[in-house]
């Protein structure tokens, strides 16, 4: 067919991650720019406001035009969160829709979405709206609905809805309902067959992009560059998920995908379309009959996987009640999938280490081959740091709590990070049989690190000490440890409620140090939590014998040359109280030898009696941590 290719954009290359939109809209809603987001002065002002609130990082002088603000404004309007600008060619006046740049009713609903599934549903409602103009001017279409139609036809022919990255790049976002869906699928399957037979995939892909680019009047690199961004925005709807570097339909959402798929354009007026967008578009699941069919399909999937569930306590008389029941089952399914994901991480330790490498660099990507790439977007490094160390904990294994109980951050359906953990609690709570490790992380490397992290980290560890009936270790991990931060944690003093003085065990470790020790554990076949705690114990034993700079060097040495010490109880450190079980007296640890600890007992004389106690004395029960 005679083609003039255009690539549709459901996102924006200046805002590649839709996960950030809610945070940006929350800042916007509290700003003086609500209803005032047009004009250079307002654009520059809102851009600076986003920068001040930490939503963007606008390096001084990098953008003085306010283009960041225009990109955020476009995404707010595209998803119906603010009223878009109406032009004369649209055929109606701005007043017929709503005040320009004001928050819409749907925008307020989006701001109240406090779970990731609720956020996904908002994006799904917005993405289902047919607001993209057809190239021939005859109606409007939804890229999501069109892609679902392609994938369902692929599934009908091949048994799977999988669509690879190169297939999406060449025949996904370059097509629309002016094409016949069968023709598009024919081209995808032809491309797939020829690519499988190609001896070298990368040269083949370049050749295919060049051939398709003959019908495209912009840079050929856009085929792949825009693919990654477009697929992110399609996945945020919750109906699609990753498959390699491409897409597939989420099995639990298959019936919903069937209801949404559409190969023909809408002929509704633009005013009706925008009105629906700004008030929250209906979904098939809003219909009671369809909602029940989706619920029953999900129940059958859980039964086939032998997943236990019970919704007998929930009423199912209307769509709202049915969807509440469905959300309960989706949560059970998600938690079950997360447990399976956790079990796979022990075999993924090298990839986890590679993510640490990218984080140390501040972001970037590593390509293993054409179809296997890992990436840390620079603007999402903080979320990826928490996620990477969560995966590291899962790989070390032996957790007593569930993987979803360890983390405080949100995941998407592919178990990729959506956001950092919220305030008020620690980042990662790893509970093991004999101890708990609370991990706190930060991308901050400046002298502000101590001011930002010193108080909340100690408070979180203090709370954990009070809540867990076992020793609690704090592990603070940053790309670079500021010496003032190390000094704060070296003292480790915190006063809990009622002026209860605590000596907290917090070890500051750089990400590079943790990475080296993590790799050593797996390469030596000793990856287990006791090995990690042995390092923490070793580091803590030096803190009272040296100042912060020296302690940092001692930690570095301990990571690279860990000593093999006798098996003393966990949490046995300088100042720890120890009970002499035979004489029923309490002493205090005052020193360490190679194979013993020194315990001072007050016998009512001028000088306390100091006793050397070996590990075997604790094993036999003669001594115990008080």
Mean pLDDT: 93
% residues in beta strands: 5-15%
Question: Which bin fits the share of residues in helices?
Answer: 40-55%
Question: Largest sheet, described in full?
Answer: 5 strands, antiparallel
> Helical stretch count?
24
Question: What is the alpha-carbon Rg in Å?
Answer: 29 Å
Low-confidence stretches: none
Please state the overall shape, judged from the principal axes of the Cα atoms: elongated
Give the terminus-to-terminus CA distance. Answer: 82 Å
Q: What is the SS-derived class? A: alpha+beta
Number of strands: 17
Strand order of the largest sheet: 16-15-14-13-17
Give the helix/strand layout.
Elements: H1 21-29, H2 40-52, H3 67-78, H4 94-97, H5 105-112, H6 116-127, E1 132-133, E2 140-141, H7 143-158, H8 165-171, H9 181-197, H10 201-213, H11 222-235, E3 240-243, E4 246-249, H12 254-260, H13 270-279, H14 288-304, H15 319-344, H16 349-361, E5 364-369, E6 372-376, H17 381-396, H18 403-406, E7 428-431, E8 436-442, H19 449-467, E9 472-478, H20 483-491, E10 493-496, E11 500-503, E12 506-510, H21 511-523, H22 529-541, H23 548-560, E13 577-580, E14 585-592, E15 596-601, E16 609-614, H24 615-619, E17 623-625
Parallel strand pairs: 8-9, 9-12
Antiparallel strand pairs: 1-2, 3-4, 5-6, 7-8, 10-11, 13-14, 13-17, 14-15, 15-16
Provide a descriptive summary of the structure in words.
This protein has 626 residues and is an alpha+beta fold. Helices cover 46% and strands 13% of the residues. It has a five-stranded antiparallel beta sheet with strand order 16-15-14-13-17. Strands 7-8-9-12 form a four-stranded mixed beta sheet, with helices on both faces. The protein has a two-stranded antiparallel sheet with strand order 1-2. Helix 16 packs antiparallel against helix 17. The N and C termini lie far apart (82 Å). The mean pLDDT is 93.
């Amino acid at each position: 067919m005679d083609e003039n290719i255009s690539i549709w954009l459901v996102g924006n290359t200046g805002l590649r991650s839709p996960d950030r939109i809610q945070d940006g809209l929350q800042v916007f809603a509290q700003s003086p720019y609500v209803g005032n987001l047009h004009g250079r002065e307002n654009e520059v002002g809102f851009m600076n406001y986003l920068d001040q609130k930490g939503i963007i990082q606008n390096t001084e002088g990098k953008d003085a035009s306010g283009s960041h603000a225009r990109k955020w404004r476009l995404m707010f309007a595209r998803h119906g969160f603010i009223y878009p600008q109406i032009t004369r060619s649209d055929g109606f006046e701005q007043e017929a829709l709503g005040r320009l740049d004001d928050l819409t009713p749907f925008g307020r609903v989006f701001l109240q979405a406090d779970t990731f599934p609720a956020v996904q549903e908002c994006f799904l409602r917005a993405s289902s709206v047919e607001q993209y103009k057809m190239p021939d001017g005859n109606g409007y279409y939804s890229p999501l609905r069109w892609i679902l139609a392609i994938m369902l036809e692929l599934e009908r022919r091949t048994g799977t809805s999988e669509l690879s990255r190169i297939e999406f790049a060449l025949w996904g976002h370059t097509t629309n309902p002016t094409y016949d869906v069968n023709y598009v699928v024919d081209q995808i399957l032809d491309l797939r067959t020829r690519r499988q037979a190609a001896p070298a995939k990368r040269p083949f892909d370049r050749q295919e992009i060049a051939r398709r680019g003959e019908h495209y009047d912009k840079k050929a690199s856009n085929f792949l560059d825009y693919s990654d961004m477009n697929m992110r925005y399609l996945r945020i709807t919750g109906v699609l998920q990753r498959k390699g570097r491409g897409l597939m339909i989420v099995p639990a959402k298959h019936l919903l995908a069937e209801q949404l798929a559409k190969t023909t354009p809408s002929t509704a007026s633009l005013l009706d379309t925008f009105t629906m967008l700004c008030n929250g578009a209906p979904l098939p699941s809003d219909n009671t009959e369809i909602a029940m069919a989706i619920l029953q399909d999900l129940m059958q999937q859980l039964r086939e996987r032998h997943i236990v569930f019970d919704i007998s306590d929930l009423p199912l008389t209307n769509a709202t009640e049915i969807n509440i029941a469905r959300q309960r089952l989706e949560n059970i399914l998600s938690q079950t999938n997360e447990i399976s994901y956790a079990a796979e991480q022990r075999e993924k330790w090298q990839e986890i280490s590679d993510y640490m490498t990218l984080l140390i660099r501040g972001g970037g990507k590593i390509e293993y081959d054409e179809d296997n790439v890992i990436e840390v977007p620079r603007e999402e490094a903080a979320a990826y740091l928490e996620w990477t160390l969560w995966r590291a904990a899962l790989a070390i294994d032996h957790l007593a709590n569930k993987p979803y109980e360890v983390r405080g951050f949100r995941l998407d359906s592919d178990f990729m990070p959506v956001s950092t953990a919220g305030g008020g609690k620690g980042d990662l709570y790893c509970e093991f049989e004999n101890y708990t490790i609370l991990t706190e992380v930060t991308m901050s490397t400046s002298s502000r690190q101590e001011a930002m992290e010193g108080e909340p980290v100690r408070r979180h560890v203090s709370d954990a000490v009070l809540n867990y009936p076992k020793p609690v270790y704090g592990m603070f991990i940053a790309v670079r440890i500021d010496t003032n931060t190390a000094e704060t944690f070296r003292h480790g003093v915190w006063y809990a409620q009622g002026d209860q003085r605590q000596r907290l065990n917090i070890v500051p470790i750089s990400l590079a140090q943790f990475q080296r020790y993590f790799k050593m554990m797996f390469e030596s076949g000793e990856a287990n939590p006791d090995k990690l705690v042995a390092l923490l114990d070793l580091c803590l034993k030096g803190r009272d014998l040296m100042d912060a700079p020296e302690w940092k060097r001692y930690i570095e040495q301990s990571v690279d040359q860990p000593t093999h010490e006798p098996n003393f109880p966990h949490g046995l450190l300088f100042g720890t109280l120890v009970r002499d079980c035979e004489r029923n007296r309490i002493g205090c640890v005052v020193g360490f030898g190679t194979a013993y600890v020194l315990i001072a007992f007050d016998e009512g004389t001028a000088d306390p009696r100091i006793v050397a106690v070996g590990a075997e004395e604790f094993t036999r029960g003669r001594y115990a941590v008080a």
